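Changelog-adjacent note: as of this version, every example in the card shows the full chain rather than a window. The one below runs 188 residues end to end.
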Amino acid sequence: MAAVSINRQDFQHDVQGRRFADVLNNPSQPFDDVLAFFSNEDRQRRMEEAELYHDRPPLAGVVRELESQPGIDRFLASQHPHSTKRLRQAVGVVVRMIMERRGWRKTGRKGSLGVRAKVAPLSSRPGAYHNTGGLAFWFLRAERYERPEGMPFRSVRERWRELESQSTQPGVAAGANHLPHSSPGGAP
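Full-length structure tokens:
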């Protein structure tokens, strides 16, 4: 599939995007860098692959590269947390617009991208809201998506539930669905 391109006008006319005029119209925000970053076909493919093959939010497929963009990283590290939160939320809107245009829909669930550092509530220190672990440094959670026709692979949770329901059925011995364990010599 060819790359979906989101420009300022597309964003401004989006139902959610129009709520981010402060991000769109503030020249200190690296929003043009965000739009250029996400207009790349390879990145959009990696976003889809994050959902399809890794059971992660689309942003997980590109977040490290996004955060390594000098203008974006500099902004997130040096600005008031309210401004950085607004930019991070606007990134979520851009991701949604791309995923929907590529035929995906929101699930209403969020997926983890990191473990937030302990910060004093309402801290106004620039760069205060970052992560200490996980995949991303600046982004904590991201929306999950699915294909309208269904996903090609079941999640681990779905597979586990199926396995558990099979093992509790009458006549099915506990562990009957498990592969035999190997001994140190390699024989079952």
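Structural remarks: Residues 8-167 form one domain.
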